[in-house]
UniProtKB/TrEMBL annotation:
It comes from Luteolibacter algae. It is found in: Cell membrane. The chain crosses the membrane at residues 193-219, 250-269, 397-425. It is a multi-pass membrane protein. This is Type II secretion system F family protein.
Amino acid sequence: MPLFTYKALSSGGTVATGEIEASDRPEALRVLDKRGLQPVNLKESSKQASPAKAGKNARKKETAAPPKRKEKSSEISKEEEIPDGPLKLKRAEVILFTEELSDMLGAGLQLEPALRSMENRQELGSLKAVSQRIRTIVRDGVNFSVALKKVSPSFGPLYCSLAAAGEASGALDTILKRQAHYLKTLAELQSRLILAMIYPAFLVLVGVGVGVVFVTTLIPQLTELIKSTPGGKIPFAISMMMAFADFVKSWWIVITLAVIGGFLFFKAWKDNEANKPKWDEMKLTMPLIGAVISSRFYVQFLETMANLVGNGLPLLRALELSRDATQNLSLRKKLNGVIDQVGDGRAFSKAMIRSGTFPPLLIDMISVGEQTGKIDQSLRRAAERYDKELDKDLQRIMALIMPTVLILMALLIGSFAYLMITAIFQTISNLGH
């Protein structure tokens, strides 16, 4: 029977080494798991077990054959229940996974036992399969962030980059807790946005319906009435509207295809790797949306930096990991400039000034942290401040949606009503003459 040499961590945190006999690598991993050991390195030895020892082990297997075969078959059936290929998760499931794992890691559990505990939880549903797959990969010595990428695309590049930063700094539980908070905030924002858009969407639908009725029914009837009236003259605005309606009726297929083609062209341009930095830069300059994207970047960047620096990582390494967790390519390019300057010996605050990306107040707070030697605390205070700014920006956008839609609908319906009333009065006036 093959021999496997191992190096593993015990539950007490000590390093254990030795050799075990197993028919294959998965069985060797299961043996270590039963002993409460977390493998760091496991490889097959070139030596083989002695015949006497092998015979002894064979006799042991014969005497205990029924329960061992049952145990092995149950484990195999358990593994067969796990589907192959990437596993898709809903956002609520990603949030639940992140919260559960961060709580267990914060309570002192190591990563592999925490994942095994989640795997045994009946109420977690499909997350049991995710936990089992991740634990299997991590047990083979692969990084947690890499395991996340392999198991499910639902975690996303930002999530995996932050997990890698947490592993590098030893603050995985804190990073995951922050990420859970961020995902919950994003889910709440989308929920609030959907609720806030129900009434405006209803108003838009009603306004469009009223406009269609005006253009297709009421205004044509009115124009026929005006034409049949002696001396009747159709107002210029109504003539233009009818001409536009006739144009749409005649060319609606071409217009629809042009709109669809324009959308597909824009999407292809936006998704092109060469154009992504330009598109990311354009998003930062959009009214209202640009401020939200910038504030969210400041919060994420500052929180990540505070956690990494606070856990003892050098400033330059913390900047590199924070850059990798930034999805906006335009902002990532600016961070590359900051990293180059800090690597050349320039102060962090001075490098931020030269980048031209960060606001003066943020730079002043970080400069104070550099002078006092408590830069992690300054970063955390700045993150809290810009988190409040982000919330204000979102509330401002939500507050502007309703009045903006009401004003647009009032202008649309009011314009139609004004044209109709003007035309009617003009017809009455012509009849009087």
